């Protein structure tokens, strides 16, 4: 057998093996598209090439309320920022002492919804060594963040 033919045979074997691996091993429970989906090229809305193209709309907004995000950063500006992720809406801070306070805190803030609503804001405060913080303190910080977010929204003129 010559080397060109052996190379072609090897390439074909690899392609067949790769194609066979796409079948999955679920015993036939998932056999491709659902009965309601139409995979004809003229009907299908996405293709494998959409993965490599940059078809994303640059005006797509992230699911985090910008007023809550900015208000959280402003109200807790005495805490050093450890990490922020605007795509998931999580802000993690280090320990810091509020102005006029004697106890240090650290916070984890999660903004879970694009709505300017109390249910969108999740705040976790910890004292030194992971000590629990009084629920009244947590509520006061949440109220301060929500109040500031409403003020920012009014300043922005989007009522």
UniProtKB/TrEMBL annotation:
Record-linked InterPro entries: DUF3576
Pfam families with a match to the protein in the record: DUF3576
Origin: domain of life: Bacteria
UniProt keywords, alphabetically: Signal
Annotated signal sequence range: 1-20
Keyword Signal: yes
Protein name: DUF3576 domain-containing protein
């Amino acid at each position: 057998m010559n080397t060109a033919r052996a190379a072609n045979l090897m390439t074909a074997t690899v392609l067949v093996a790769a194609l066979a691996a796409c079948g999955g091993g679920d015993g036939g429970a998932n056999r491709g598209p659902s009965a309601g989906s139409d995979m004809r090229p003229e009907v299908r809305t996405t293709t494998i090439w959409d993965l490599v193209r940059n078809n994303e709309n640059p005006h797509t907004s992230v699911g985090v309320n910008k007023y809550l995000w900015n208000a959280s950063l402003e109200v807790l500006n005495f805490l050093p920022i450890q990490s922020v992720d605007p795509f998931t809406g999580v802000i993690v801070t280090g320990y810091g002492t509020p102005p006029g306070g004697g106890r240090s805190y650290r916070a984890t803030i999660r903004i879970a919804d694009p709505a300017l609503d109390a249910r969108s804001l999740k705040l976790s405060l910890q004292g030194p060594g992971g000590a629990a913080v009084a629920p009244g303190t947590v509520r006061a910080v949440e109220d301060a963040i929500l109040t500031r977010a409403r003020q920012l929204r009014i300043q922005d003129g989007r009522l």
